[in-house]
Recover the amino acids of this structure.
């Protein structure tokens, strides 16, 4: 794009133009002419401000394309990369798997803050360091351990391999990747032999030239223990109760601390079907009690939601769409039907955001005590 075209896009307030600007800047920064200059402190601060400002309200597909563009970029701003790493897994995956900007501390933080799907991507990351491997082993999440066992480039020490083999006694999904792992030793293969299936036993015996007669005797003696030793709790999981909500709250907090949490983010959250993200962001933007916001969304009084939206700067013309999307995502709540929607429009009377916020807090407290 020419400099004139970029300038025209920068002047435009249309969402499509701003998204085109976002991708155009990414292409510009990734050009051979940019070079090492993109990593200077001043340029990094400027890029972080520009990208964060544009990406907050960008549609999901644009964020996905941006994550693919930035996945291998060593100049990408740290704050932006960490925000994308906490996005939906399809958006986060290229960043987690490739970004050189993500350091060990960032990856360990993802293991603590993100969903199981994100943690699995961390465990699959090529050339994973020993520090991150240790964090994965310490958490002992079966699905993440299984992903680690299938990562032949991870920095696994002999003690780490021993820990994984021992874990495979309880976690059946670990056995196949461990039996094929390049760092599996003959001694560990003998232990693994005792609780794998026939096909894997044959493969281990051939690979390590094991004495199957002795091992089969040991297998027969431990068969009863093996059959009763598998715990249902140890089976790989792909979700934990409340983990997505916790991750969404951390994402909101990151955007808020960077000064990039704005009303447009609420609309984006609803368009993507993420009601919890909408509720959490509205509470932070308005400095509202999160329980009051949730109670409002579940109530029969859409005018309270309108007050909260007015308090954070949502325009009257946008609220009908917000109410409609919220109802579709929340089984028709907030209720009140068409008459409730009409009452809600009154909340956008010519009063200040401060007055609307105070009115919401008072009404929400009364609602919670009703």
């Amino acid at each position: 794009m020419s400099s004139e075209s970029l300038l025209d896009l920068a002047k435009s307030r249309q969402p499509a133009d701003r998204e085109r600007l976002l991708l155009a800047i990414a292409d510009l920064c990734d050009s051979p002419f940019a070079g090492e200059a993109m990593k200077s402190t001043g340029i990094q601060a400027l890029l972080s401000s520009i990208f964060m400002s544009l990406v907050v309200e960008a549609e999901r597909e644009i964020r996905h394309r941006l994550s693919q563009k930035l996945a291998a970029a060593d100049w990408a701003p740290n704050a932006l990369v960490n925000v994308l790493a906490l996005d939906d897994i399809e958006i986060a995956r290229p960043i987690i798997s490739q970004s050189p900007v993500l350091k060990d501390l960032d990856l360990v933080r993802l293991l603590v803050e993100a969903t199981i799907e994100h943690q699995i991507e961390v465990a699959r990351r090529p050339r994973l360091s020993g520090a991150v491997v240790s964090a994965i082993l310490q958490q002992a999440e079966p699905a993440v351990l299984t992903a680690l066992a299938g990562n032949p480039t991870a920095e696994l020490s002999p003690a780490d391999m021993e820990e994984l083999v021992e874990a495979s006694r309880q976690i059946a999904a670990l056995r196949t990747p461990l039996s094929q792992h390049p760092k599996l030793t003959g001694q560990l293969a003998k232990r693994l032999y005792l609780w794998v299936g026939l096909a894997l036993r044959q493969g281990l015996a051939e690979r390590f030239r094991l004495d199957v007669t002795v091992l089969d005797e040991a297998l027969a003696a431990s068969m009863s223990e093996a059959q009763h030793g598998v715990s249902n709790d140890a089976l790989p999981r792909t979700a934990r109760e409340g983990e997505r909500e916790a991750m969404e709250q951390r994402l909101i907090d990151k955007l808020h601390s960077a000064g990039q949490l704005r009303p447009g983010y609420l609309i984006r959250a609803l368009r993507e079907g993420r009601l919890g993200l909408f509720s959490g962001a509205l509470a932070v933007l308005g400095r509202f009690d999160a329980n009051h916001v949730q109670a409002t969304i579940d109530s029969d009084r859409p005018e309270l939601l309108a007050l909260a939206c007015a308090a954070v700067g949502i325009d009257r013309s946008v609220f009908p769409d917000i109410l409609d999307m919220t109802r579709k995502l929340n089984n028709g709540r907030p209720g009140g039907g068409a008459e409730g929607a009409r009452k809600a429009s009154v909340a956008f009377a010519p009063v200040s955001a401060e007055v609307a916020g105070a009115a919401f807090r008072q009404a929400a407290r009364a609602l919670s005590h009703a």
